[in-house]
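Q: Given only this backbone (78 positions), what sequence would you predict?
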């Protein structure tokens, strides 16, 4: 099981990023534990300045803007 965190204020792009992550995980058959992190102090601990951010298994893989589906597939498949 992959541990996935979507970092952001809860804005539209953050919600869409979480939906993209879950949708791609479902398509690939990769079980994930998805957590939305909206607390700015928690987000700051990951060292990103632009949201939405994505953390997979403790590693920051994306910051700012919507991630590409191809990138999500690569993160979930590694």
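A: Predicted residues:
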């Amino acid at each position: 099981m992959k541990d996935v965190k979507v970092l952001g204020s809860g804005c539209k792009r953050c919600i869409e990023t979480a939906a993209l992550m879950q949708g791609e995980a479902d398509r690939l058959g990769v079980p994930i534990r998805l957590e939305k992190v909206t607390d700015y102090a928690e987000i700051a601990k990951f060292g990103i300045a632009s949201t939405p951010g994505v953390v997979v298994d403790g590693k920051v893989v994306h910051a700012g803007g919507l991630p590409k589906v191809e990138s999500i597939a690569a993160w979930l498949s590694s």
